[in-house]
Amino acid sequence: MASIINDPNGRKRIEFNGIDGKRRGIRLGKASLRDAIEFKSKLEYLTSVKIRGASPDADASKWLANLPEKVHKKLAAAGLSGTIERADLAIGPFTANYIAGRTDAKPATIINLNRSREHLCTFFGESKNMQDITEADAEDFSRYLTRAKPAKPGDLQGAGLGVNTSRRICGRAKQFFRAAIKRRIMAANPFDGVKCRVQASVDREYFITREEAAKVIAACPDAEWRLIFALSRFAGLRCPSEHLALKWSDVDWKQNRFTVHSPKTEHHEGKAFRIVPIFPELRPFLQEACKLSTGEHVIATHRESNVNLRTQLYRIIERAGLKPWPKLFHNLRSTRETELAETFPIHVVCQWLGNSAAIAKRHYLQVTDDHFSKAAGNDAKAPQNIAEHVDKSRKNEKNVSRQENDKVANVLRDSSIFPAIPADLEVKNVASEGLEPSHLWGNGF
């Protein structure tokens, strides 16, 4: 038990028993009775935690970490501060140590974490104590990210970043503080009230028509670049990660489908790969690349230069006589998902594209000019009046459910849509076992 001792001139000290049984004292100087009682209560709590072999709560951990060095040494000598390590709460060292410990993260994740760390250190300073950062400070940091860069000396400083980029950085800042909370050295996250969720930018959406796609393909310098574009526009692959992971052994020509390995989603259960049809628009470019290939990877010669794919595609689009659209590869994937959603159920489309219906709705599906044309009755296939539409709906009512269930299967079986492999095609490096590894069949699958 701890005791409050009143010394002359309003000074107080706390006497307590250490874990070793020795009686010790800590001088508080001039302090109010309330402060002395709070200090005594914290000491008794830490003693109880140490005896039980448990961990202190976030409030006690924060209190202990903020004690003066002299007081902390006395508690350490009594065996009380050993319940936690006294962390260095300066934002620079803490975030650096956190990133160094993320051995599970991918290289791109580490790059993004370091960028967020740099912005935090630029705004707050390397030595800023994380416990001193308030909710108001976090909001100021968010505004700093989106504020324009200073045009001249003396102007208000800002990073000049886009809204979504700012939100991603704030999300990673929240991640740093969440790690501090888990280590019980902070009680609350100042970034909890800051918007971190990325929003769809409607003004940056662009639907790449088939006519535009044909012009870009015609301007591509080689077969591999034609395939890179086709995989993005007609199969909706994420570029560059899914393109560069694709191997010829993943292609099953007989079943008209191929396996896409997804580094982005592989850490989610059941999301390491997905099966995608060899769409008729994609097939000729896949066949062309197969004939010319000499290695195991579908995209081989551009593997080392993948960081420049966006810059190269920008130049190819300009060479085609078109104006480069915003988010070059994202809008290719978005266009394909929008197209497929017109023909197939959304759960099938999401399975092929490797995302969820919620993500597709928020970030990929677009409203196109064709939708407005059909709504205005300009589509030749659309019924011209409500009565015609109701009559047609009644006639087809019994067949709707069966047609929806059989739609995908019928398309995949249609030889006119998925033509046979040409006789002169030499397919290289295709595994004989098909899509599923043969060892699985010996384990009861």
Outline the structure in words.
By secondary structure, the chain is mainly α. It contains 18 helices and six strands. It is elongated. Residues 82-87, 382-387, 411-423 and 425-445 have low confidence and may be disordered.
Brief account:
The protein is mainly α. It has 18 helices and six strands.
Secondary-structure topology with pairs:
Blueprint: E1 3-6, E2 11-17, E3 23-30, H1 33-52, H2 58-65, H3 69-77, H4 91-101, H5 107-124, H6 135-146, H7 163-182, H8 210-219, H9 223-234, H10 241-245, E4 251-252, E5 257-261, E6 273-277, H11 283-292, H12 309-319, H13 328-341, H14 346-353, H15 357-364, H16 369-375, H17 386-396, H18 400-413
Antiparallel strand pairs: 1-2, 2-3, 4-5, 5-6
Helix pairs in contact: 4-5, 5-7, 6-7, 8-9, 9-11, 9-13, 13-14
| Net shape | elongated
Q: What series of H and E elements makes up the topology?
A: EEEHHHHHHHHHHEEEHHHHHHHH
How many E strands?
6
Domain count: 3
Point out poorly predicted stretches: 82-87, 382-387, 411-423, 425-445
Question: Which fold name is given in CATH as the topology of the largest domain?
Answer: hpI Integrase, Chain A
Tell me which CATH architecture of the largest domain applies here: Orthogonal Bundle
| Overall pLDDT confidence | 80
- Superfamily (CATH H level) name of the largest domain: Intergrase catalytic core
Beta-strand percentage?
A: 5-15%
Protein structure class: mainly alpha
Radius of gyration: 31 Å
